[in-house]
Amino acid sequence: MIDKFRKVAMESLAVLLGTLLMSGPAFAQVDLSGVWGFVRGQYGQENGGGSDIGDFTGIPLNDEGRAVGLSFSAAQWSEPERQCQYYSPRYVSTGPFALNIWSDTDPVTGKIISWNMGAWIDKDIVTVWMDGRPHPSASAFHPFGGFATGTWEGDTLVIRTTHIKWSILRINGVQHSDRATMTQYIVRHGDLLSMLTYFEDPVYLSEPFVLSSVWQVNPKANSIRTSPACEPINESPRLENTSIVPHYLPGKNPFANDYARYYNLPLEAAQGGAQTMYPEFRKKLKDVYHYVPPEKCTRYCCDSPDPAVKCIRDGSGQVR
Amino acid sequence: MKTVLRLETALTHSPPRRGGEFGRVLLILCLLSLCPRLPGFAQNAPSAKASAPIDLSGYWVTIITPDWRERMVTPARGDYLAVPLTAAAQKIADAWDPAKDEAAGEQCRSYGSPAINAAPTRFHITWQDDNTLKVETDYGMQTRLFHFGNWKPPAGPATWQGDSIATWELTGPAPARKSGNLRVTTTHVRPGYFRKNGIPYSANVRMIEFWDLFTDPGGTQRIMITQQIEDPEYLFRTWITTYNFKKEPDASKWDPTPCSSRW
Asked: B4, B31, B33, B63: best mutation site toward chain A, by most A Cβ within 10 Å?
């Protein structure tokens, strides 16, 4: 009788284990941990030399967003109170950063309670809470990393981030407000990590700003998890002990037209807006503005890793 | 199935011995693990259309934000930013002559599969048959065919869109596995340009794509394509990029335009 019981028990165990062998995890939890290296292959100038002032192409800015972008002076970063201002979590999708991702687990249950996206420099750690906690009230403190929660949809980690501080959308001064929110979709394909970022800002954008990005696993990288401590120093004596706030008044930015001029573009294209994201805008460029490309590239022409390629790699106009 | 019966017979009629039950457990485990992979179980596999974990059909429009000046308009001669091209590719691209392409009837050189996902285009995606997904573009009026199953590429000259073999990569909890993505491998592509301004790819170009589908907070579906391109002649390293498309409600903005060497 005991043998028969053992036999049935063993067979039941076999069926149970077999079922587990055939199945995936009960809850889709892809391992995202590791160091994901920055892949240079898109966002050429944006995460290389930096976007030109006045290059707002492909950003669904509204009139306020455009005006704020054109009022921007890079000297703002020299103000003591801004020298240690981090980028917002949105910058992960276009910045030239590796991604260091790790999880924190509950010491009792062993469940993952958060995924953390490391900082490298110039931005804060983003902690993605996986334990179902609610987002705080809208008036709660906005940390540099925002407040992020995550859920799994299949094998996609969906991250919802709120409480984002005011920051820049592009390094050339296009900005987002502190009312912006972000949803990110992260999937892993072998050694690649892809992310779709859906960014909304009721203050400066007329449509969601949607970007996609990719990283490649780099097991040999030694990427730091936290940004080094920042110490404000006096970078510009003229900004010290004065009431100067660097900016340009409407219509007074002397660099506003540079990007359009460099690339034979109409200002309507260079200064962005939702229409510039869609293919039908080409009709206007062709039929209304009679766009003709510049005869040849004279700045930021290539960034190939092949040392045999000699070309203009920055804004100097010099072949290197 | 014969294999299963033979194993079952052996189990039933084997004389009892030490460890026999454990061995039996192991055998059952193996059978349970392997059964779905045996040929007999694959014979009734549903078609690619029936087993699709995501529905990619419909009209889709690209969102052009990164590298706008290289993608939305014809870039200047010598603008190769973000492409890991080789010196050999640079030499060819520097000599780009759209008039020569027009004269040769090769206006579609920058509309091949290695270039088309980055282009200012819309997609119309339909099932051509139960195992062939068709992706049409209005920009250059190209057609890509993603072949599932045991499709074998036909002999013949390479084409702008090449031969694409597709699989669903199923994820999510078994046995349903109702989530996943599309993986496409494309080869046998007729040499063309990565961009309108003549950055070349060779006949040996090979592209792997991962197509993911998401629904954004506004309820609109979005496709994200992650692609890896290898070209031993004209790329210094694998070129990895992503592109995203938004679903449109209908064909009202579908605007077929022929290939152009200049615009």
From this structure: B63
B77-108 burial code (b ≥16 CB/10 A, e <16)? bbbbbbbbbbebbbebbeebebeebeeeebbb
Asked if the structure places residue B53 within a domain, the reply is no
* Shared-domain flag, residues B93 and B218: yes
Taking only the tens place, the pLDDT of each residue in A234-244 is 777 777 777 78
Range list of β-strands (E), B174-252: 179-187, 192-193, 200-201, 206-215, 221-230, 239-248
**B60 neighbors B125 (Cβ within 8 angstroms):** yes
DSSP state of B159: B
- Give, for all 320 residues of chain A, the pLDDT tens digit: 455 556 555 555 554 444 444 443 444 579 999 999 999 999 999 988 999 999 999 999 999 999 999 999 988 888 888 888 889 999 999 988 899 999 999 999 999 999 999 977 788 999 999 999 999 999 999 999 999 999 999 999 999 999 999 999 999 999 999 999 999 999 999 999 999 999 999 999 999 999 999 999 998 887 888 888 888 887 777 777 777 889 999 999 999 999 999 999 999 999 999 999 999 999 999 999 999 999 999 999 999 999 999 999 999 999 99
pLDDT tens, residue by residue, B135-184: 999 999 999 999 999 999 999 999 999 999 999 999 877 777 789 999 99
Residues B81 and B174 reside in one and the same domain: yes
How does DSSP assign B234-257, residue by residue? TBSS-EEEEEEEEEESSSTT---B
Residues of the domain holding B17: 2-42
Q: Residues near A92 by Cβ (< 8 Å), separated by ≥ 6?
A: A99, A117, A123, A126, A195, A197, A213
Which residues 163-182 of chain B have a CB within 8 Å of chain A?
169, 171-175, 177-181
Tell whether B15 is covered by a domain: yes
B133 domain residue, yes or no:
yes
d(CA A270, CA A272): 6
Q: What is the dihedral of CA A83, A85, A86, A90, to 10 degrees?
A: -130
Give B188's Cβ-side CA count (13 Å radius): 14
Residues B78 and B198 in one domain: yes
* B115 and B184 both lie in a single domain: yes
B37 shares a domain with B66? no
Instruction: Please state the separation of Cα A59 from the chain's center in Å.
Output: 14
Q: Which of B7, B11, B65 to mutate to test the interface with A (most CBs of A within 10 A)?
A: B65
Tell me, yes or no, whether B244 and B129 share the same domain.
Answer: yes
Single pTM value for the model: 0.88
Residues 6+ apart with CB under 8 A from B5: none
| B134 touching A (Cβ < 8 Å) | no
Strands (E), chain A: 34-38, 99-105, 112-117, 126-129, 147-153, 156-162, 167-168, 175-176, 181-189, 192-200, 209-217
Among B residues 15-74, those touching chain A with beta carbons less than 8 Å apart: 21-22, 24-26, 28-29, 31-33, 36, 61-70, 72-74
- What is the rounded CA–CA span in Å between residue B49 and residue B37? 20
B258 domain residue, yes or no: no
Number of independent structural domains in chain B: 2
C-alpha–C-alpha distance, residues B159 and A37, integer Å: 34
